[in-house]
Write a structure and sequence with these properties.
It is a single chain. This protein has 132 residues and is mainly β. The protein contains two helices and nine strands; from the N terminus they run E-E-H-E-E-E-E-H-E-E-E. Strands 1, 2, 7, 8 and 9 form a five-stranded mixed sheet that branches. A two-stranded antiparallel ribbon has the order 3-4. It has a two-stranded antiparallel sheet with strand order 5-6. The radius of gyration is 15 Å and the shape is globular.
């Protein structure tokens, strides 16, 4: 059975705090390009850095950093595997599957320790752990 892990680095900060952080351009293999300054449209999120690697067990690990400009009462989250603004109560209470983080046809399950969720279909499992 092939398993892949998708740890997603998502900073759950209020929009005003997130706008104060300097963004970096998207890259891969832990390479970061030059700093880019731009505004994120209100109510949306954009990926500003992507990192990928494989460990010795042939499990692909991915992480990303996002910049969001969410409306009041919303924080950075994930919807249909994409960064998005979600209701803050979902994150505070760790009801991850209420964000609808998985693709259509995938089953969402909150991890037992509440640190993230998994999306599964058939024998494929994608696990997402939230880091701050």
């Amino acid at each position: 059975m092939k398993r892949s892990a998708w740890p997603v680095q998502v900073a759950f900060l209020v929009a005003l705090v997130m706008l104060c952080v300097d963004p970096v351009s998207a890259g891969s293999r832990n390479h970061r390009g030059p700093t880019v300054s731009y505004q994120v449209k209100q109510g949306t999120c954009e990926v500003v850095a992507i990192h990928r690697c494989c460990n010795k067990n042939k499990i692909e690990e991915r992480s990303q950093t996002v910049k969001c400009s969410c409306f009041p009462g919303q924080v950075a989250g994930t919807t249909r595997t994409r960064p998005s603004c979600v209701e803050a109560s979902i994150v505070v209470q760790k009801w991850w599957c209420q964000m609808h983080p998985c693709m259509d046809g995938e089953e969402c399950k909150v991890l037992p320790d509440l640190t993230g969720w998994s999306c599964s279909t058939g024998n494929k499992v994608k696990t997402t752990k939230v880091t701050r």
